[in-house]
Amino acid sequence: MKSGSAIRSATVPGRVNLIGEWIDFNGGLVLPMAINRFVTVSVLEQGLAEDTIGSDSFGVEHKAALDAPPAGHWADYVRGALAFARAQGWIEGGQRVQTTSTLPAGAGVSSSAATIVATLKACGAEAAGLTATDVALAARRVENEFIGVPCGIMDQMAVSLCSPGHVLALETSTLSNELVALPADWQFLVINSGYPRSLADGAYKARRDECLAAATSLGINPLCKAQLDDLNALSEIEKRRARHAVTEDARSRQALSALKTKQRNEFGELMIASHASLAADMEVSHPAINAMVSCAVAAGADGARITGAGFGGCFVVLTSQSKSEAVWQVLHSQFPGISRLN
Ligand code: GLA
After folding, report:
1. pLDDT digits (tens, 9 = 90+) for 108-132
2. Ligand 1, atom 5: nearest CA belongs to which residue?
3. Half-sphere exposure of 300 (CA within 13 A, CB side)
4. Is the pTM of this model over 0.70?
5. Please, what's the b/e burial string for 199-214 (b: 16 or more CB within 10 A of its CB; e: otherwise)?
6. End-to-end CA distance of the chain
7. CB-based contacts of 338: which residues, under 8 Å, 6+ apart?
8. pLDDT given for residue 1 in this prediction
9. Distance of CA 49 to CAs 8, 55, 116, 170, Å?
10. Alpha-carbon dihedral angle through residues 125, 128, 129, 130, given to the nearest 10 degrees
11. Which positions ≥6 away from 255 have C-beta within 8 Å?
12. 323-334 pLDDT tens trace
């Protein structure tokens, strides 16, 4: 059945994080931006004995009993949101759902958060009175409790509140936020390295636990509130993770003012420093992406960095509008396996 015959449908963008990486669970400031790639979730039938989830991208339909646990399948993101919506009384019984997506999965551009948020909206979250922030919080519960990934709040807030061309400046300790329009001559290229990553593979949780352990050792909560001088007492690993959190939060705050004052070069320098810290202190980069980031900067970009949870996936490059095509051509000739998302 086509999505045109849907009972209800919702379309939600993916996001790229410009700076403020690995600090959304450490109380930092983050700057994600919505991209022109979307997930659409359509509810086609309701009141069924089981859930049936189809996808234009993956072909095969997935069927599951209403109380079945997650199956390690892409459809889990939809099923977790359906279970949440049923528990809230927004929908009744099993649902037949169809998803379409122009967002690559496993590339660090929040296809999972977009799928959950779109499903919650298609199930009537807004009609039930939830604000965009409430929907984001509900989506994080689905990801934390049903999927089992202890992610922060950045992705859900970005895809729920942001539209393409706008940056969401989000204080993750309070959820206070503002939307800042991208200056007309700035271009953020979002590029898939071709090296996939998986958030559920335990590495994300391990890094997050190291950050929380550092905060506990210091007696400071959240970790981004620590001072660099405080960190000397920590073990080597905790010191590195904490140093990333503290310096990344400072970079993100400086980047927000560079964005508002249209200082592209300064924003780019902060991205380069962010990448170095993610590679050395947080240890979430990938050797191939380190080479791509260096190549982008050598080709004249203002800045470049790995984006999202890391270990592979996408990187983001800042250039002027006029230079972006030339920078892309250099990158693509050096790394033919990469692809542009925008
Ligand atoms: C993933 C998580 C986010 C955030 C980023 C790293 O995208 O879902 O909460 O922690 O990694 O910045």
Report:
1. 999 999 999 999 999 999 999 999 9
2. 309
3. 12
4. yes
5. bbeebbeebbebbbbb
6. 30
7. 191, 192, 193, 194, 292, 331, 332
8. 40
9. 19, 20, 21, 41
10. -30
11. 18, 19, 20, 31, 266, 267, 270, 271
12. 999 999 999 999
Is 67 among the catalytic positions? no
Asked if 279 and 21 touch (Cβ cutoff 8 Å), the reply is no
- The CA angle 46-149-147, to the nearest 5 degrees, is 25
Q: Which two tokens stand for residue 180?
A: 């800042």
CA angle 280, 155, 273 (to 5 degrees): 25
* Cβ-contact 300, 323 below 8 angstroms: yes
Q: Closest Cα to atom 2, ligand 1: which residue?
A: 151
Look at strands 314-320 and 303-306 and give their pairing. Answer: antiparallel
pLDDT in tens, 167-180: 999 999 999 999 99
Among 76, 155, 249, 281, which one carries the catalytic annotation? 155
Tell me, in angstroms, the distance from the centre of ligand 1 to residue 152's CA: 6
- Least Cα distance to 120 among 151, 152, 95 occurs for 95
Residue appearing with tokens 């949440």: 84
* Residues contacting ligand 1 via CB (< 6 Å): 17, 21-22, 24-25, 151-152, 154-155, 308-309
- Distance, CA 220 to ligand 1 centroid (Å)? 21
Q: What is the pLDDT of residues 241-259, one digit of tens each?
A: 999 999 999 999 999 999 9
Ligand 1 mean position to 122 CA, how many Å?
Answer: 24
Phi, psi of 98 (to 5 degrees): -120, 135
Tokens at residue 116, please? 């959950």
Question: Is 277 exposed, middle or buried, given 0-12, 13-18 or 19+ CB atoms closer than 10 A?
Answer: buried
Backbone angles phi, psi at 300, to 5 degrees: 105, 5
